[in-house]
Model the fold of this input.
Amino acid sequence: MDLDLKKPIVFFDLETTGVNIANDRIVEISLLKVFSDGSEEMKTMLINPGIPIPLQSTEIHGISDEDVKDKPTFNEVGKSIAQFIEGCDIAGYNSAKFDIPLLAEEFIRAEIDFDLKKLRSIDVQVIFHKMEQRTLSAAYKFYCNKILEDAHSAEADTKATFEILKSQLDRYNELENDVEKLSKFSTHNTNADFAGRIVYNDKGEEVFNFGKYKGKTVESVLEKDPGYFGWIIKSEFPLYTKKVLTAIKLRKFNS
Done:
């Protein structure tokens, strides 16, 4: 089933130096823009992460320090990536927990004012797990009856994710062919940040989702324990989490 699109949607996948959202970097990004008329535009690029690529990561995606030594850094290509995504919805596989948060970190480090949190997003893995509980390769076999060649290649994974979503729409009558509804269906929770360190409670208030103040509203904690803000800012939390926390602090200060 073709997607019913009101505006373009960008499927994307990252290959990285590791799985730590706060500290690891992108080494390859692939983006597939699908337009409302069904036409497609593909953009794939290797990126110099500026840090060594661990051998265990190279063994997974096949990208080594040698492969990226002469490639542009994210600082050099970040604006073009933001321009490619701007005005679109986004989608990926495990994107809510990994790809979107890590991409957001790269935008912040490059001082590019592009807030991915404002975009509607679909996580194809969440739909798959709610329906079947499998991996990307198994999902591709299950939904498309194809073997995923070059798994852990960003471009192959990106194309497979697009095909899987279309097949999911064919298979499940309860899934509506609407990006807004697919986005809501493929969202597990109501995170205020991407990493889930700050979430919304049933009153729509931001609350901490970790540590000694778990379940407490951010505003009340910052008022009671101002030093907690400084501790988070100085610690190895994702930059986007720190951005959200700072915005809450400034909102409270200006109110």
The chain has eleven helices and seven strands. The chain has two domains: 9-185, 198-254.
